[in-house]
From TrEMBL:
One of its GO terms (cellular component) is cytoplasm. It holds the Pfam family GPI. It comes from Candidatus Moduliflexus flocculans. This is glucose-6-phosphate isomerase. Belongs to the archaeal-type GPI family.
Length: 187
C-alpha cells in the first residue's frame, strides 16, 4: 500500500493594515529595475530607475513542498504609480505546468488581473477589496494597480505549478492599462 507523507499543519497571520504576511519564509522584492522590457515607454521606466529605483512589488510566501497535492499561498503587494501613465504591474507569467489554475482574493486596493492565452485571448478582471478572481488553467496572469494605495492580494495555487516568465517577456500582453486624467483606459 502507498504510504502518504504526513505534513505538519500550520497557521499564519496576516497584517491586514500593512497588507503583509507576518513571518514569511520567502520575501521577494521587485524594484522598477526588475521591470525592463515590460512597459511601453522604456525611457520613462529608465528615468524612474535613475530617480531612485522605487519599490514596485513584494511577494510574501510560506514555504511548502513544491509537490503535487500541496497548495502554495501568500501575499502579493503591488505599489501604486505609473510609468508615463501605464499603471504599475507585476511581470506576469504562465505557470510552468500550464494546466494549473490560481485563485486571488483582493484584500485592499483597486486594480485588474490581466490574463491572456497563447492564442491571444485577453481579459481584464476587476479587483477590489473582497473580490475573488479565478485564473483558469492556461491563462498567463499579471496584476495591475489602478488605485492610489497598494494592491494587496492573497493568492493560492498548486505548489508544483512553477513559473514561466520567458514567454511573457517575449510576447507581452495584448492589452495595457493606463491611468489618464484620473480615468482607467484599457487599450
Ligand atoms: C504565483 C502568483 C503570484 C505572483 C506575484 C508576482 O503563481 O501568481 O504570487 O508571483 O503576484 O507576480 P510575478 O508575475 O512577478 O510572479
Ligand atoms: Zn501564478
Amino acid at each position: 500500500m502507498e504510504k502518504h507523507s504526513i505534513y505538519e499543519p500550520f497557521g499564519v497571520d496576516l497584517d491586514l493594515v500593512q497588507g503583509i504576511l507576518r513571518e514569511p519564509d520567502n520575501h521577494l522584492i521587485r524594484k522598477a529595475s526588475s521591470m525592463k522590457g515590460h512597459y511601453a515607454d522604456a525611457k520613462a521606466l529608465d528615468d524612474l530607475i535613475h530617480q531612485g529605483d522605487p519599490l514596485h512589488y513584494e511577494v510574501f510566501e510560506k514555504e511548502v513542498p513544491q509537490a503535487y497535492g500541496h497548495l502554495m499561498f501568500g501575499i502579493s503587494k503591488l505599489q501604486p504609480g505609473t510609468v508615463n501613465g501605464e499603471c504599475f504591474m507585476t511581470k506576469g507569467h504562465y505557470h510552468a505546468i500550464p494546466e494549473t489554475a490560481e485563485v486571488y482574493l483582493c484584500l485592499c486596493g483597486k486594480g485588474y488581473m490581466l490574463m491572456k492565452t497563447t492564442e491571444g485571448e485577453c481579459r481584464a478582471e476587476y479587483m477590489e477589496r473582497g473580490r475573488i478572481v479565478y485564473v483558469p488553467p492556461y491563462w498567463a496572469h499579471r496584476s495591475v494597480n489602478v488605485g492610489s494605495e497598494p494592491l494587496t492580494t492573497l493568492f493560492i495555487y498548486p505548489a508544483d505549478a512553477g513559473h514561466n516568465y520567458g514567454d511573457i517577456e517575449q510576447e507581452g500582453f495584448p492589452k495595457r492599462i493606463y491611468l489618464r486624467h484620473g480615468k482607467v483606459e484599457i487599450v
